[in-house]
Amino acid sequence: MCEECGCSEKQDSAGHLSENINSKSHHHSHASKIDIGLSALQKNDLLAAENRQFFMDRKVLAVNLISSPGSGKTTLLEQMAKRFGKKMAVVVGDIQTRRDAERIIGSGSAAYQIETGGACHLDAHSVGHALEELDFSGVELCVIENVGNLVCPAAYDLGEAMKIAVLSTPEGDDKVLKYPAIFSRCSVLLINKMDIAKHLDFNVEKVSRECRSLNVNCDIFQIAAKTGLGIDEFCTYLMKKRSQYSC
Amino acid sequence: MHELSIAEGICSAIEKRLGAPKKLYRIYLSIGPLSGVSAESLEFWFSEISKEKGFGDPEIVINKTRAQAVCSNCKLVYEIKSFYSGCPKCQSVERTMESGFECNIDSVELEEQINV
What we know:
The structure holds two protein chains of two kinds.
Chain A: E1 25-28, E2 33-39, H1 42-57, E3 61-67, H2 73-84, E4 88-94, H3 99-106, E5 110-115, H4 124-132, E6 141-145, E7 162-168, H5 180-183, E8 188-192, H6 204-214, E9 219-222, H7 231-246
Parallel strand pairs in A: 3-6, 3-7, 4-5, 4-6, 7-8, 8-9
Helix pairs in contact in A: 1-4, 2-3
Chain B: H1 3-18, E1 24-31, H2 39-49, E2 59-64, E3 68-71, E4 77-79, E5 95-99, E6 103-110, E7 112-115
């Protein structure tokens, strides 16, 4: 007990208690509690809001594409680039290499590569700079291909209209409840590599059920980016969403 | 790992509210199960950087919140104890999450120096 005023004392990290009541200064708190009421990510969220306004001003539907490495995001974007061409612009995030941006440009859409050098996710700051490097005239859709990671990107708003998660059949059908932070936030789940699902023990119904248990409003598509299965339907869906968001 | 950058975000949020870094006695955080943030890792990183950022060495009190869901069948609002369990009223497992995404700084207590 603090002999100065009777309150209970806290130890500092070195384990010292302020025991000498005759010392000049005696540190403790007397409930000068100040409300903060801010998110730890408020700086990112403010920048995300600027990105969101950027997209709205240009009537561009922006989507944040999130998945594990190797689920087929870039192959999907190659297929989308063949259909959308210059109506789509892509911001790609990877730790290293420009490979993904080059593949997308080769398929007909503009793409800008962010090499994070180590960061495990994109943030609104880096996306904001990338948007300055792309020409948005005639663009209707902007896909932000996040760093391959099912954990960290969930927390970071980039200014997108919706988060889209990709889960591929070889990854297994038990992943949705293992990663609730991302699957509870996404508006769309793309189940990719359906062309090889018959060789795997992948239960689509289980994935759909668990996804709806985190967000009943999530729209689920079964696709195969390699063969083009389900891609036309998904692209039509995106354009319908664009007209809904543009109103 | 990005709990370091989130700890830096906490410092900048407090500085925004207080106007300048100030030595803190205690900091109160709320972290939800859907935040994507590890409370233990965040506590570690915040204590690593708080002194150099001018916030002293505050005690860190973390309120681990529960996710709240709205049942899409009967509209009951309930706390999620397990993601495998259904609505306590109608057992439906179809719902939307209303909360549990937060990683917030609720309040701080300033370190005050009282001269004897």
